């Protein structure tokens, strides 16, 4: 089932997510619905707060990034197969040089800005079967994970841009808040008139 994606300004996007247990009601169905919702919106990641749930769960599928210019064959092959579910994730380490990449977000449509992030992360998480993992990711894989991880920490990519850029996009953010935008996927807006 395709879920509505929560738009910028909804308080759930600012909550630090709660850990869940493997008996969380409807967990497998929720994970399946989140993948379906992400694919229908042409996203590479989706976090539970983006569908209105303040829990520590996100899904990614980095395959669309495999074809970006500049990837080595090895990176492209890895990104093509990088489809994972992260439950109760905790980033243990961020290291390496900071690098900028033009990021967007399904909850903040039509806005893309350069965001600096560290190039490598070590993350601990549980998969959809509640098996614990500790893994290292770098490059675009690390970036996709860091972006979704921010969502379960109540952080948006727009928090990481300069105040000047925030000023330049403030009207667009207000339009999202008020539902004065069009997307080709289902959204729920924080202040849409007539709700």
UniProtKB/TrEMBL annotation:
Cofactor binding summary note: Binds 1 Fe(2+) ion.
Protein's UniProt keywords contain Ion transport: no
Active site, renumbered: 148
Gene Ontology biological-process entries: translation
Enzyme kind, highest EC tier: hydrolase
EC number(s) reported in the record: 3.5.1.88
One Pfam family recorded for the sequence: Pep_deformylase
The protein's required cofactors: Fe(2+)
Keywords carried by this UniProt record: Hydrolase, Iron, Metal-binding, Protein biosynthesis
Single GO MF descriptor: peptide deformylase activity
Positions bound to Fe cation: 105, 147, 151
Function: Removes the formyl group from the N-terminal Met of newly synthesized proteins. Requires at least a dipeptide for an efficient rate of reaction. N-terminal L-methionine is a prerequisite for activity but the enzyme has broad specificity at other positions.
Designated name of the protein: Peptide deformylase
């Amino acid at each position: 089932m395709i879920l509505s994606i929560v738009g910028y300004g909804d308080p759930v996007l600012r909550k630090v997510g709660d850990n869940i247990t493997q008996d969380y009601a409807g967990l497998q169905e929720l994970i399946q619905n989140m993948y379906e919702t992400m694919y229908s919106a042409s996203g590479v990641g989706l976090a539970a707060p983006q569908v209105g749930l303040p829990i520590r769960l996100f899904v990614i599928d980095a395959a669309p990034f495999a074809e970006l210019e500049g990837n080595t064959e090895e990176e492209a092959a890895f990104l093509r197969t990088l489809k994972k579910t992260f439950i109760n994730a905790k980033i243990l380490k961020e290291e390496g040089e900071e690098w900028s990449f033009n990021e967007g977000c399904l909850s903040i449509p039509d806005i893309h800005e350069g965001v600096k992030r560290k190039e490598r992360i070590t993350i601990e998480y549980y998969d959809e079967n509640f098996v614990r993992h500790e893994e290292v990711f770098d490059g675009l894989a690390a970036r996709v994970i860091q972006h979704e991880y921010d969502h379960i920490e109540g952080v948006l990519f727009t928090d990481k841009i300069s105040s000047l850029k925030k000023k330049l996009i403030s009207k667009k953010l207000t339009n999202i808040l008020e539902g004065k935008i069009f997307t080709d996927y289902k959204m729920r807006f924080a202040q849409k008139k007539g709700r």
